[in-house]
Design goal:
about 140 residues, Rossmann fold, two-stranded antiparallel sheet, 5 helices, about 35% helix
Length: about 140
């Protein structure tokens, strides 16, 4: 089975999952390639928690790619997603936003490099035990 086929099968398996999927890129070059493949597979790149919370209730396929370390709001989303209700405080409007994920109609994956994953581990933000299925080439 070719690499693209394995990645496609992984993405198919993330549909309807009650946990955020994780894609681990070897380096920045592979990160860009995987981002392009996600776009081809009709995933929307969400830039921040507000965009994700606005779009997720409508259903769809979403991926989040951090340029540095995973921020607190996106970490909190990852932890709360399996619970059936997500509540994140919006600092811009000083109000909490609460959503109920439509699991059947949604897919959420995070895209990180191995180095970013290692940095998260060193900072004490372990995510491997909080995500669902994971893909690494």
């Amino acid at each position: 089975m070719q690499q693209n086929d394995k990645f496609h099968h992984f993405l198919e398996a993330t549909k309807g999952q009650r946990e955020v999927g994780l894609i681990i890129a070897q380096d920045e070059k592979e990160l860009e390639t995987l981002q392009q493949q996600l776009t081809i597979e009709d995933f929307s790149n969400v830039k921040d928690i507000n965009q994700l919370l606005d779009q997720l209730p409508k259903g769809g396929k979403f991926f989040y790619m951090t340029s540095g370390i995973l921020n607190k709001d996106m970490y909190d989303f990852l932890v709360q997603y399996p619970t059936g209700q997500i509540e994140i405080f919006n600092k811009e409007i000083s109000k909490s936003k609460i959503i109920i994920p439509p699991y059947k109609d949604s897919t959420v994956v995070y895209l990180l490099t191995k180095n970013q994953l290692s940095a998260l581990k060193l900072s004490g933000n372990l995510i491997l035990d909080k995500v669902g299925i994971a893909y690494q080439s």
